[in-house]
Design a protein that fits this description.
The protein has about 500 residues and is an alpha/beta fold. It has helices at about 5, 10-20, 25-45, 50-65, 110-115, 160-165, 185-190, 225-235, 250-260, 285-300, 315-330, 355-365, 365-380, 385-410, 430-435, 445-450, 475-495, and strands at about 45-50, 80-85, 120-125, 175, 195, 215-220, 270, 305-310, 410-415, 450-460, 465-470. It is about 40% helix and about 10% strand. Helix 3 packs antiparallel against helix 4 (about 50-65).
């Protein structure tokens, strides 16, 4: 691979190696990606804002440090697309909502600070469903993003801007957030690797909150190793986040490297009956089930023992999630009051604060955000709290118990990452329940706080399919080991990686 051909089509590891060897500079790599954004993002709409000056300055700093002989991280100089829900000092951060237009944060999120400290170059902020509420980016206040595999289809959500950027060659790495599947589902439908870490494994300080007991940031990459390296960069205990786990970061990079050897001897893989397994295939596309089934056969060929497990309460995950998450959102989004942040409508010196607040929220919040605020406010209201929010939390406990029982029979659990391939833009915008169904497979791990990764398993009708691998809490390395083994075996079978350069068509 030549330096010129690899600048926007290579993996993060390949690009970092070129920079470290002095074959290209970080500035050249960054400029190549900025040029790619200028030429292709008109079709993808992956970015809400591109920080050209900031990115080039960061890249130059890496080059200067390297010239001075300083020791740099393994991803130094590699560009990254940052979801707009992650606060970035001096750069407008809107969480995909018009209510935050013009807000310039005075501080960096912990994730942002760790990315910068590692020498990773932030290209800009990516599009997303407003306040991370959606599965397609069609709820963005600034228009949808498009899937590089088919521009008429969704790139997933809510982190669809980041997935479109990485899959489309605009950035080799991306950051998303996953509340109910918003890293894994976009990764699946765009042919990427995407990991939701154990809840508390990556700091939430500086994330604009949607659902505080569920929100978790994580990495996107073109390969399992790329994703693991970014995970290791952003993870770890943070005193600024009271939910951050004071434990060592699982050895995800070592696990990814070990998994690439392709040996799964002794590993027990549990196929979840309720997530597309035998007898529970309603709503799952046949091509998705076939692709995931072939990946399971590959794991068996690598020495894994395949067992079927039943998690009977997983069927209630969607209902529980859409009570818990909206309830927490109704509390978190109360802070957008036309006084402290962003938009302010109707302040003519005559209207009172309550009317200004109502007019601002009416203009600034989109339909899906309003829907979820109303659902959540009702679920928390006097006389209904225990019947709705309280019951949903009890179901959450039952789902966690299902996981505990299943992990007694298996080391990892597998399922499709999402029941279908990328659906056409507009196909589900008038049917919220159909849209919510995109997260059927990802919701249980979110509710339980356990780690889960989506890795490409192949294609169905020319579109990517994702295999989801779930592990016990703090066993993120197990996800990476199995995902790397599957990736290596499938790439060898195909004779080439599933994704290096995706034509925008």
């Amino acid at each position: 691979m030549t330096a010129s051909s690899s600048l926007t089509s290579g993996t993060a590891v390949e690009i970092a190696a070129l920079i470290a060897a002095g074959e290209v500079s970080a500035v050249e790599v960054t400029q190549a990606h900025l040029d790619r954004i200028a030429s292709d993002d008109g079709a993808l709409h992956a970015f809400l804002r591109v920080d050209t000056d900031g990115a080039l300055a960061s890249a130059k700093a890496v080059d200067d440090q390297r010239a001075a002989g300083e020791s740099l991280g393994p991803l130094a100089g590699v560009p990254l697309a940052l979801k707009d829900v992650v606060v970035t000092r001096g750069l407008e951060t809107t969480s995909g909502s018009k209510i935050l237009v013009g807000w310039i944060p005075p501080y960096d999120a912990t994730i942002t600070a760790r990315i910068k400290a590692a020498g990773i170059v932030i290209l800009g902020k990516t599009n997303m469903d407003e306040f991370a509420m959606g599965s397609s980016t069609e709820n963005s206040g600034f228009g949808p993003s498009h899937n590089p595999w088919d521009l008429d289809r969704i790139p997933g959500g809510s982190s669809g801007g980041s997935s479109a950027a990485v899959a489309g060659g605009l950035a080799p790495l991306g950051i998303g957030t996953d509340t109910g599947g918003s890293i894994r589902q976009p990764a699946a439908v765009t042919g990427l690797v995407g990991h939701k870490p154990t809840y508390g494994g990556v700091s939430r300080y500086g994330l604009i909150a949607f659902s505080s007991s569920l929100d978790q940031a994580g990495p996107f990459g073109r390969t399992v190793l790329d994703t693991a390296l970014l995970h290791e960069t952003i993870a770890g205990h943070d005193l600024s986040d009271s939910t951050s786990i004071p434990a060592p970061v699982p050895p995800v990079v070592a696990a990814a490297r070990a998994g690439a050897s392709g040996d799964l001897t002794g590993l027990r893989v549990g196929v979840v009956r309720e997530l597309g397994g035998h007898g529970f295939a309603d709503g799952y596309e046949p091509g998705v089930l076939t692709s995931v089934g072939e990946a399971v056969e590959v794991m068996a060929g690598l020495g894994a023992e395949i067992v079927e497990v039943s998690c009977p309460h997983f069927g209630y995950a969607l209902a529980a999630y859409y009570l818990i998450a909206p309830s927490e959102a109704s509390s978190n989004l109360a802070r957008f009051d036309a006084v402290r942040y962003g938009l302010r409508v109707g302040d003519d010196g005559v209207r009172g604060l309550d009317e200004v607040m109502a007019l601002t929220r009416q203009a600034g919040f989109g339909p899906e955000v309003k829907r979820r605020i109303m659902i959540g406010t009702y679920a928390l209201s006097s006389g209904y709290y225990e019947a709705y929010y309280g019951q949903a939390q009890k179901v959450r406990t039952l789902i966690s118990r299902d996981f505990a029982a299943a992990f007694g029979a298996a080391d990892v659990l597998v399922s499709p990452s999402t029941p279908t391939v990328a659906f056409p833009l507009g196909a589900r915008t008038d049917n919220p329940l159909a849209m919510y169904a995109a997260d059927l497979c990802t919701l249980p791990a979110s509710l339980a706080g356990t780690p889960a990764i989506s890795v490409p398993s192949g294609l169905s009708d020319g579109l990517p399919v994702g295999l989801q691998i779930m592990a016990p809490a703090l066993a993120d390395d197990r996800c990476y080991r199995v995902a790397a083994a599957v990736e290596s075996a499938l790439d060898a079978r195909r004779g080439h990686p599933l994704l290096h350069e995706i034509p925008i068509r």
